[in-house]
Amino acid sequence: MKKIICFVFAVMMILSCLTGLAAPAQKELNVVTTIFPIYDWVREIAGDTLSGISLTMLLDSGTDLHSYQPTAQDILKISTADLFIHVGGESDKWVSAVLAAAMNPDVREISLVEAMGEDIKIEEIVEGMEHEHDHDHEEEDEHDHEGEDHDHEEHDHDHEHEEEADEHVWLSLRNAEKLVYVISEAMAEIDPENADVYRSNTVSYIEKLAALDAEYAEAVESAACGTLLFGDRFPFRYLADDYGLDYFAAFSGCSAESEASFQTIMFLAQKVDELDLPAVLTIEHPKARIAETIISTTQKKDQKILSMDSMQGTTSSDVQAGATYYGIMESNLAVLKEALNR
After folding, report:
1. How do residues 226-247 score in pLDDT, each as one tens digit?
2. Angle at alpha carbon of residue 229, lines to 223 and 235, rounded to 5°
3. What CATH number did the domain enclosing 266 receive?
4. Is residue 53 domain-shared with residue 127, that is, in the same domain?
5. Are the C-beta atoms of 39 and 33 separated by less than 8 Å?
6. Tens digit of each residue's pLDDT (9 = 90 or more) over 140-195
7. Cα–Cα distance between 131 and 118 in angstroms, integer?
8. Which domain holds residue 51?
9. How many CA atoms lie within 13 Å of 138's alpha carbon, on the beta-carbon side?
10. Which segments of the chain does DSSP mark as H helices, in order?
11. 285: exposed, middle or buried (C-beta count within 10 Å: 0-12, 13-18, 19+)?
């Protein structure tokens, strides 16, 4: 953390000298976001006024949220913003140092994690899931539930590890409705001239999200099974909890691990057999080795591999190709239906 602070202040000193020679910038609302969902929400709120807004998405090249560190150019963009919106949590520890040295002392900050308030969830380790402390606690098997009846409606969660907020709040449509409203109000306060437009667009967009939420609820209600199994990280806890879905996964949502143990593979394969699941899921990336290994270890060996998009790697090219938060969540619904029906 000290290295980050020193780097930020060094960068800010250099940039302040350089920008002091630049011509005054045009007076337009300057909004800087980290990830795609936030960027797209601002587009929806702005509507026809978007041409009068300078809108930036920092993570636009597929960089993983959990490993991102801002460049000097990123720091300058944040430092001169009117509104900076980021996820918050462990992945954004660098933010406080950047804002402390901001050139615009009035820059408004919104952290999605903080905006969620009491609705934020703690990242959890469910039965069978790999996590960073497995090798430190071999003498006490934190995931051994032999002799216990496992109720699939109520996960036995392990909170022995250090608690961290689950950052993937945008993957719940219900959270999105709340967060879009918070962002809209901030934009209205900073730019009162367009406040009515922002608020009107927000009402329409939230209605659209609520309608899609209802489709999700209906799909889960009529599904043949109520469990998702990921041979991958699992960033969809908020979505699963919204609709009462159970889940199993190789890793937690923020895990840096990529290799699953023999025990994890066997556990997940047995769950596929036990629950007669039609699919093993992954998040958006070309590699599905763990999912393939799980399927090859099952009795039937004929399950599908399906992918749900967590929007952590959405790029500027995707945006240019027409990607939207709503569209991706709509596509995820189609995948969900297939994963829950035999």
Report:
1. 999 999 999 999 999 999 999 9
2. 105
3. 3.40.50.1980
4. no
5. yes
6. 444 444 444 444 444 444 444 467 899 999 999 999 999 999 999 999 999 999 99
7. 25
8. 2-118
9. 2
10. 2-19, 36-46, 72-79, 95-100, 112-116, 173-190, 195-221, 237-242, 262-275, 289-297, 316-320, 325-339
11. middle
